[in-house]
Amino acid sequence: MGEQRQRYNEEFKKQTVKFIQEQTKSLGDLAEELNIPKSTLHQWMSQFRELKNEPAASVDRVRELEAELKEMRRQLQEKDHQLTDAQEELAIVKKAVHIFSKPRN
Q1: What is the separation, in whole angstroms, between the first and last Cα of the chain?
Q2: Between 20 and 30 A from 53 (CA), which of 22, 74, 82, 95?
């Protein structure tokens, strides 16, 4: 017969994820220590992960922050282009208003 599946309550899962986030060991090493399958820990991490509990030196956290920074830079560059376009359009409208507001002789 197969092994009996171990069931864990939500609080245990949250505490385990928090513990994992505070460690510098790999997830595989922690899975072995805790005697919980690595895939199960991955599921828990995706469910209960809180970035504020992770050290900044975490490779995943650094990658996530770099990706966020890259996206924000892209958005800022896009906004700069929009602002430049709007300023050019405004300059054209001002010239048009000036030209069309002159009295005809």
Answers
A1: 103
A2: 74
- Residue 24 belongs to some domain of the structure: yes
CB 48 within 8 A of CB 14: yes
Q: Supply the pTM of this predicted model.
A: 0.42
Residue with tokens 């995943």: 60
Q: What is the CA radius of gyration of the chain?
A: 28
Nearest to 37 by CA among 27, 46, 47: 27
pLDDT at residue number 104 = 77
Structure tokens at 90: 């405004």
pLDDT digits (tens, 9 = 90+) for 66-99: 899 999 999 999 999 999 999 999 999 999 999 9
* 22: in domain: yes
Cα–Cα separations (whole angstroms), residue 22 to 9, 68, 84, 87, 99: 20, 22, 45, 49, 67
Q: Are residues 44 and 72 in the same domain?
A: no
Amino acid present at 43: Q
Tokens (6 digits) for 50: 């809180």
